[in-house]
């Protein structure tokens, strides 16, 4: 099974890339 730590390590950068444009859009 994949460990939670592995999932976080893989998803963290993806979420970060997705959050940047979202925050930029919400702040405007």
Description:
The protein is mainly alpha-helical and 28 residues long. It is built from one helix and no strands. The chain is rod-shaped. The protein starts with a helix and ends with a helix. The mean pLDDT is 83.
Descriptive keywords:
mainly alpha; rod-shaped; 28 residues; 1 helix
In short:
The protein has about 30 residues and is an all-alpha fold. It is about 85% helix and about 0% strand.
Radius of gyration from CA coordinates: 12 Å
Helical segment count: 1
Q: What series of H and E elements makes up the topology?
A: H
Global morphology: rod-shaped
Beta-strand percent range: under 5%
Please state the oligomeric state of the protein chains shown.
Answer: single chain
Mean pLDDT level = 83
Point out poorly predicted stretches: none
Q: What structural class do you assign from the helix and strand content?
A: mainly alpha
**How many E strands?**
0
N- to C-terminal distance: 42 Å
Overall helicity: over 70%
Largest sheet: none
